[in-house]
Amino acid sequence: MKKAFNSYEIKSSDMELKDLDSSKRQVAMYLSKFDTIDSDNDLITRGAFTKSIQERGVNSESNRKIAFLRFHDWNMPIGKFTELKEDENGLYAVAQLSKSTDGNNALIDYEEGIIREHSIGFKYMKDKIRFIEDDTKENGGFYQVSEVQLFEGSAVTFGANEFTNVIEIVKAEGKENTIEKIAKEIDIVTKSIINGKGTDERLYSMEMKLKFLNSRLIELVKIEPFNKHSKKEDKPTEKTGFDWNRVINNINL
Questions:
Q1: Pair (136, 208) in one structural domain
Q2: Which residues, in sequence order, are bridge partners of residue 69?
Q3: What's the rounded Cα separation, in Å, for the pair 111 and 90?
Q4: Residue 210 in contact with residue 186, Cβ under 8 Å?
Q5: What is the count of structural domains for the chain?
Q6: What is the pLDDT of residues 90-123, one digit of tens each?
Q7: In what helix (H) or strand (E) does residue 169 lie, and over which residues does it extend?
Q8: How far apart are alpha carbons 43 and 174 in whole angstroms?
Q9: CA–CA separation, 34 vs 38, rounded Å?
């Protein structure tokens, strides 16, 4: 996998929300996980965020501090980080949600279980990444990432796994487990829509998520059960971007 060293990259932590204090409008989270090979075939090591925290972290003198955003949108700040540090698990953060419209919508989404995951926006450092050969790995090895330039951490409605090809999820987790996970997510989103809290924009985004989840169920019913013991070689699936128009036009609530 070729790395784009001058581009703005996004990576999910795949870790659940750590803690929420609604009365104080504070949320604790992990923005990144250490020493685990992720879907980008990367293994981020402890220390990868040290320089960014020193230069633009909470206690730095920079006027361009690491931002707390929604959907990696720089026009949608939802608060500010009050703590950023590395521990044995990953990049740990505590944030204070603002009292803006976007901050209020985010708080409701946290309370109703819509937001559970977080992602980082960053840039790879060319001299801080190397390929480690390992014949036991599917790709013959992995990329060890010892430093990145961190721009922001974002609360996301959709975790990275939700954009993964459905067939690949079924192979990893099984069809029944995948259907159960999607069904639980649909239940959460449906209850959130019924509660009707927040702005019209928030409720619209929930409607779009429900349409997306419904579309995944439709895709799942078309997939044959995966047999990991099958001798037939699987054909590689082509990765494509998510087609919102197809979901909006073809899936009805």
A1: no
A2: 77, 154
A3: 24
A4: yes
A5: 2
A6: 999 999 999 999 999 999 999 999 898 899 999 9
A7: helix 166-173
A8: 25
A9: 10
